[in-house]
Amino acid sequence: MEEIKMSELKIAKPSIEKVDRTPVVFKNEETGLMLAGIIYRPRNRKEGEKLPAVVIGGPMLSAKELVQSLYGQLLAEQGYLTMVYDNSTIGSSEGHPRGLEDPEMKAGDIRSAVSYLMTVPDVDTDRIAGLGICGSGVYIPHALRNDSRVKAVVSVVPFTVMSFVTTASDEELLAQKAAYENGEEPERLDLITGSELTDYYFNTDRGAAANMVNPVSWSQMAWHKFFPTETIKEMKAPYLVITAENAFTREGAEMMYANANEPKELYVVKNAKHSDMYDVEEYVLENIEQIKAFFEKYL
Questions:
Q1: pLDDT of 231-243, one tens digit each?
Q2: What is the mean pLDDT of the chain?
Q3: Is 296's pLDDT higher than 60?
Q4: Which of these, 115, 9, 155, 14, lies nearest to 72 by C-alpha position?
Q5: What is the full DSSP assignment across 63-109?
C-alpha cells in the first residue's frame, strides 16, 4: 500500500505549553506486573483543585506516547486529568513474551489504572471515565462494564473482530508457544501490512515507534474466546461510541452501540476512515468535542 504523504494530512498536535506531563509507575493488581504510565494535567489548574479524570487506552500495538497521549493531552487542555499507560508486555511495561495480547490481562491493566487514579490527590474520585481507541475501544468497556468507580465510557473506532483472526490450529499455536518456552524466538502476527494501518504504523511522522512489536501468534487463542459485542450488554455506565463513516470497523462499532444499555450515544464522523481517527487533526478535534460534551453530561 502506498504511504500517504504528510503533505496530504494535517496531523493534530497538542499544545505543550498548556499541559503538564508526569511519568508514573503502577502495578497490575491481578498479575503483579509493573506498568509504565503518564499523567497529563491542565497547566492552568488551580492549586488544590480536584479534577475529573480519564483512563485512556490506545490501539492494540500502540505505545503510550502515541494515539492515547494525543487524546490525553488534548483532553487535559480541556480541564481533565488524563492517564495513559503501556499495557503488560508492551512498551515500557513488564511482561513476557513481549507483545502477548490477552484481553483479560489487559482488562486487569485497565482496572489497575483506575485503582491508581483513585490514589492521586488531585483526582475527583467521583468523576472518573474510561476512553479506548481501536483495540482499547473494546478492551476498556469490557474491563469496566461492571466497575462502579467509572461513571462514563467512550469507544473510538472500536476493533471488535479479534475472534476472526485465525492463522493456525490451536495445536500448531500451542507448539509455537512451547517452542518459545524452549528458547526459540516467538512466532508473531503481522496485522498491519497490507491494510490502511500501514499508513499510520510505518510512518515515522505518525505512529512508528521503536518499541512496537507485533503480537505473538498464540494471542489469537485468547481472542477466540473474546466477544466484546456480547460483554457490552453488561455495561452499567453511560456509553458513547464514535466511529468513522468509512472505517472498516464501523459495523462492529454500530453493534457495540446496538447491544449496549441506555444511556448510550452513537456519533459517526463524516468522510473519515479508521486510522484517520488516530491523529488527523480535523477528525481528532471533532472527536474531542464529542467526548467533552459526553463527559460534561455524565461526569
A1: 999 999 999 999 9
A2: 94
A3: yes
A4: 14
A5: -TTSHHHHHHHHHHHTT-EEEEEPPTTSTTS--SSTT---HHHHHHH
Dist CA 243 CA 215 (whole Å): 25
For 194, left (φ over 0), alpha (ψ -120 to 50), or beta? left
How many angstroms separate the CA atoms of 103 and 99, rounded? 12
Which triple of cell numbers denotes residue 128?
A: 472518573
Name beta bridge partners: 280: 11
Pairing of the two strands 123-133 and 51-57: parallel
Start-to-end Cα distance in the chain? 42
CA dist 153 and 114 (Å) reads 12
The answer to whether the beta carbons of residues 160 and 238 sit under 8 Å apart is: no
What's the pTM? 0.95
Q: Across the beta sheet with 123-133, what order do the strands follow?
A: 19-27, 34-42, 81-85, 51-57, 123-133, 150-156, 239-244, 264-269
Pairing relation of β-strands 81-85 and 34-42?
A: antiparallel
pLDDT band at residue 111 under the 50/70/90 scheme: very high
276: left (phi over 0), alpha (psi -120 to 50) or beta: alpha
Amino acid identity, position 228 = P
Among 26, 58, 283, smallest CA distance to 155 is for 58
Which of helix, strand or coil describes residue 142? helix
Q: How confident is the model at residue 4 (pLDDT cuts 50, 70, 90)?
A: very low
